[in-house]
Design brief:
Strand content: under 5%
Structural class: mainly alpha
Largest sheet: none
Distance between the termini: 21 Å
Oligomer: single chain
Order of helices and strands: HHHHHHHHHH
Radius of gyration: 19 Å
Number of domains: 2
Helix content: over 70%
Number of strands: 0
Length: 271
């Protein structure tokens, strides 16, 4: 067993306590709330992926799929922990978010051994570092927005059917989920705009053009327009519920194709 595989499994295991914690309440073990046990499990879920992602990068960003996945997981956990600290109801998204990140971590672990070339470019290192950081934060914010949107969708469906489930009783209310969704989408749009700007700056420095219409650029621009359109429609018409949830998930799919889909094709399908 390779050293990378051992470390990946360790980071994956660090996510499990936090991902299982909310199901104690959902399963009838009682409402635990944001107890010391929750914060301890959350700290472990942040620490494991963050340390492993930092070790993987090690001062030289590689373009491999496992590194991209672990950096994404680490960013999602850091932002989720901050959101839980700042917003009382945000921790209730954990039954949706954390199992998903465990699944992503499992994919990252299975992908160990795929080629991971070091990123090279003619632009100044600081521009490349800023662009990468902005891209990772954008994807993490949109991940949280998609989870909040899914929570709002589940709450709306339960209300219409008049059949609340143990999961929907645990999740934030529909109003709280929609507030989280809109705030996270606004942050995603702002950071994505900065990411597009820094990407154009890097491309202009390296190739003398501001835009190159490849798959990554087209998917990123489409994501920017979908999120912007949804936010505009929310302000003008108050669009919400299933329509908003579908648009958020479409935006998330587009950004996933731009951020991770290209890496998957290059590192796994074409390797």
């Amino acid at each position: 067993m390779s050293q990378n595989l051992v470390f990946s499994l360790t980071a994956l295991l660090a996510l499990l306590p936090a991902s299982l914690y909310p199901y104690r309440a959902i399963g009838g073990a009682g409402e635990q709330g944001r107890s010391a046990m929750f914060w301890g499990a959350l700290a472990l879920a942040v620490f494991g992926p963050v340390v492993w992602a930092a070790v993987r990068v090690g001062g030289a960003w590689t373009t491999g799929l496992p590194t991209a996945l672990w950096v994404t997981i680490a960013a999602c956990m850091v932002l989720f922990a901050a959101l839980c600290t700042l917003t009382r109801s945000a921790w209730r998204l954990s039954p949706l978010l954390l199992p998903y990140l465990v699944a992503v971590a499992a994919v990252a672990t299975l992908a160990e051994g795929t080629r991971a070339p070091v990123l090279r470019g003619g632009a100044p290192g600081i521009w490349i570092d800023v662009h990468i950081a902005v891209s990772v934060v954008t994807y993490a914010l949109l991940t949280l927005a998609a989870v909040a949107s899914l929570a709002a969708f589940l709450q709306e469906r339960a209300l219409k059917a008049k059949r609340p489930t143990a999961l929907t009783r645990f999740l934030p209310s529909m109003a709280e989920s929609e507030r989280l969704q809109v705030r996270l989408l606004g942050a995603s749009e702002a950071v994505l705009g900065a990411g597009l700007a820094t990407g154009m700056a890097v491309l202009h420095y390296e190739q003398g053009v501001a835009l190159r219409f490849d798959h990554k650029t087209l998917f990123s621009l489409a994501t920017f327009m979908v999120i912007g359109g949804l936010l505009f429609a929310h302000i003008r018409t108050g669009v919400r519920g299933r329509t908003a949830a579908r648009l958020v998930l479409i935006a998330y799919l587009l950004l996933t194709l731009a951020y991770l889909g290209v890496k998957f094709v290059a590192d796994v399908l074409l390797s």
